[in-house]
Specification:
It contains 20 helices and no strands. By secondary structure, it is mainly alpha-helical. Belongs to the annexin family.
Length: 338
């Protein structure tokens, strides 16, 4: 897997990345949407003797998140109960997690995943990195607000108490949701930043991590792409190689993830999905989270990158790695075998 990102140019995503955001999902709004009919179908599937899982899967995976929120509201009005609570009561395991995750507002889902990563005796840094490295400013601000509303505590405070050092500093900068999101770039500034990164890393005895953090966590995607091009000219190697050579641990993982998301977000998620199913056991939490969170954003592009990178489809890999209703639900989200 180390060779996947050796040539960043080969994995460069579309230049209109910001314009395309949200248009490349596998799940779209259902054209013949009827919330009352969906509530009736779900009630019948849940309230009968035994749950009719196929009805639950088809209804939830074939509606957009906005439509699911309407279903939740109408379900509450019709039954006096919370649909998510009913799903938790009737379903189980990874299948339950997918259905419940799809029913949640995306910001609330991200907040729940972050809370789970911070909970317990150890922090799951990989989850925090995946979410904060890949979300837009608006998504970050919404998930922070959802976290505050659910936990009556600031996500900034909770992160500060769990992580520290340069890794903590970088995460808190990303959490501010203030990355420059302009679609223009300045070629001269790219040269200046590339030299600054080179001087702070390869050219310096000891790495100036703060310079890497400041540039990688604040500059716009088009600006950083140009900076990476200039960096390769200055250093004769790509920025990922340099970060891996100069840093270690969580900070290395975070900055590499940031670079990969700048270069090609779908390829980053394709790699994460591959690793979640590689080896002796499946990382269901990561697999589910990515399938849910990218289902209305760029899962079509993730599928394409997956096949390009690994030679077989995401659909076929899911089918070979998991089973039952959990598998069926993920394949419905995946949406195709190409």
């Amino acid at each position: 897997m180390a060779s996947v990102w050796d040539d960043l140019d080969a994995y460069l995503g579309p230049t209109d990345l910001l314009k395309k955001a949200g248009q490349r999902g596998t799940i779209k709004a259902y054209s013949n949407f009827n919330a009352a009919a969906d509530v009736k179908a779900l009630r019948s599937a849940i309230e009968g003797i035994g749950t009719t899982e196929s009805v639950v899967i088809d209804t939830i995976t074939q509606r957009s998140n906005a439509q699911r929120q309407i279903i939740c509201k109408e379900y509450k009005g019709a039954t006096g109960r919370n649909l998510i609570d009913d799903l938790k009561g009737d379903l189980g395991g990874d299948f339950e997690n997918v259905m419940v995750g799809l029913m949640m507002h995306p910001a609330a889902f991200d907040a729940k995943e972050i809370k789970g990563a911070l909970k317990g005796s150890g922090t799951t840094e990989s989850t925090l990195i995946e979410i904060l490295a890949s979300r837009t400013n608006l998504q970050i601000k919404e998930l922070a607000a959802a976290y505050q509303a659910e936990n009556q505590r600031s996500l900034t405070d909770d992160l500060t108490s769990d992580i520290s050092g340069d890794f903590g500093k970088a995460m808190l900068i990303l959490l501010q949701g203030k990355r420059d999101e302009s679609i223009n770039f300045n070629q001269e500034q790219a040269k200046i930043d590339a030299k600054a990164l080179h001087d702070a890393g390869e050219k310096k005895w000891g790495t100036d991590e703060s310079k890497f953090i400041d540039i990688l966590c604040k500059k716009s995607i088009p600006q950083l792409r140009k900076t990476f091009e200039e960096y390769k000219i200055v250093s004769k190697t790509n920025i990922v190689e340099s970060i891996k050579g100069e840093m270690s641990g969580n900070l290395e993982d975070l900055l590499v993830a940031v670079v990969k998301c700048v270069v090609n977000t779908p390829a980053y998620f394709a790699e994460r999905l591959y690793k979640s199913m590689k080896g002796g056991g499946t990382d269901e939490a990561t697999l589910s989270r990515i399938m849910i969170s990218r289902s209305e954003i760029d899962l079509l592009d993730i599928r394409a990158e997956y096949k390009k990178l690994f030679g077989y489809s995401l659909h076929s890999n899911i089918k070979s790695e998991v089973s039952g209703d959990y598998c069926t639900s993920l394949l419905k989200i995946c949406g195709g075998d190409d």
